[in-house]
């Protein structure tokens, strides 16, 4: 059974590479044509938090709104029972938060209490975006330096291609679904990069051990053996992580939706890309057992 799987694995890995390249190209197209819907953290504006004691959903409450509020505001669950959010761009509302609360109470027929108001200026939003991008850049540079030190350059490039694929696919799905790109999504992207890196390194470490053996087989068979040897560990780790993140995605509320979705999509694609991106790329770049074979130094006079 295992020998049969190993015999067919190379073909499946390269088929997965072809599909992953198509998916990456589609996500790049989504980012270029649709772009990211920047959240309040980066664009600036107001975040109003209200207490409305009701068991109705956000969709039901928004359906009760009438002009002039209908179309001007939208209620979102804050995650905690009875707490609701309204996100507004800079200078987008003609009423004060207190006046808005009174109008909401009249239209919903429920008591409405203003809990807090948070203002984010455009300059602060631009600084947050810059700092978030710098954090991603610093993480990427640190990963590149670590891989250059730990692995042969072709293996390192394969792992980097896998990490870049996971980040691009997650961003493409965010653009397609119109999820707000905010600090929570950046935190999710950094977690995805770390998870994808860890999964690819496990396979690469095992492959390096096989390549360093005395009589290693061909590079394709070495890679297939490494994938099979680490498959159970990958399946268990990814399965338990997806179960936890899936629960957060379903039950975490609106405030954590972007973070949970980014992490869920990244873990799912990262599990596959460590096999379908990292391993074929390093083979296409010419990795062979000779890259890790140490030269035998014969004693003098032998």
TrEMBL record:
Molecular-function annotations in GO: protein-transporting ATPase activity
Domain Protein export membrane protein SecD/SecF C-terminal: start-end pairs: 112-283
Keywords: Cell membrane, Membrane, Protein transport, Translocation, Transmembrane, Transmembrane helix, Transport
Transmembrane segments: 12-32, 132-149, 156-179, 235-253, 259-278
Keyword Cell membrane included in the entry's annotation: yes
An individual GO BP term: protein targeting
Membrane topology, from the record: Multi-pass membrane protein
Coiled-coil ranges (or none): none
Subcellular location: Cell membrane
Primary localisation category: membrane
GO CC annotations on file: plasma membrane
Pfam families on file: Sec_GG, SecD_SecF_C
Family classification: Belongs to the SecD/SecF family. SecF subfamily.
Known function: Part of the Sec protein translocase complex. Interacts with the SecYEG preprotein conducting channel. SecDF uses the proton motive force (PMF) to complete protein translocation after the ATP-dependent function of SecA.
The protein's assembly and partners: Forms a complex with SecD. Part of the essential Sec protein translocation apparatus which comprises SecA, SecYEG and auxiliary proteins SecDF-YajC and YidC.
Protein name as it appears in the record: Protein-export membrane protein SecF
């Amino acid at each position: 059974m295992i020998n049969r799987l190993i015999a067919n694995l190379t073909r499946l890995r390269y088929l997965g590479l072809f599909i992953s390249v198509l998916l990456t190209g589609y996500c790049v197209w989504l980012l270029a044509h649709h772009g990211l819907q920047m959240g309040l953290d980066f664009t600036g504006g107001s975040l109003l938090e209200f207490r409305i004691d009701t068991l109705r959903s956000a969709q039901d409450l928004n359906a009760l709104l009438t002009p002039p509020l209908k179309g001007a505001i939208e209620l979102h669950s804050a995650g905690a029972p009875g707490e609701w959010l309204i996100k507004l761009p800079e200078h987008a509302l003609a009423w004060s938060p207190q006046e808005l609360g009174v109008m909401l109470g009249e239209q919903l027929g429920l008591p409405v209490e203003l809990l807090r108001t948070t203002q984010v200026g455009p300059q602060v939003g631009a600084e947050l975006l810059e700092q978030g991008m710098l954090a991603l850049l610093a993480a990427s540079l640190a990963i590149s330096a670590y891989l250059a030190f730990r692995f042969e350059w072709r293996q390192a490039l394969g792992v980097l291609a896998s990490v870049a694929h996971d980040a691009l696919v997650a961003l493409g799905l965010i653009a397609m679904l119109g999820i707000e790109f905010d600090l929570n999504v950046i935190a999710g992207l950094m977690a995805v990069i770390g998870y994808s890196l860890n999964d690819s390194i496990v396979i690469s470490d095992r492959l390096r051990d096989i390549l360093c053996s005395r009589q290693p087989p061909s590079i394709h068979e070495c890679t297939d053996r490494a994938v099979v040897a680490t498959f159970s560990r990958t399946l268990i780790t990814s399965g338990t992580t997806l179960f936890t993140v899936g629960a957060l995605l379903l039950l975490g509320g609106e405030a954590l939706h972007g973070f949970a979705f980014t992490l869920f999509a990244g873990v799912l694609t990262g599990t596959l890309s460590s096999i379908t991106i990292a391993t074929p790329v390093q083979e296409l770049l010419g990795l062979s057992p000779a890259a890790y074979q140490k030269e035998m130094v014969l004693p003098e006079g032998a």
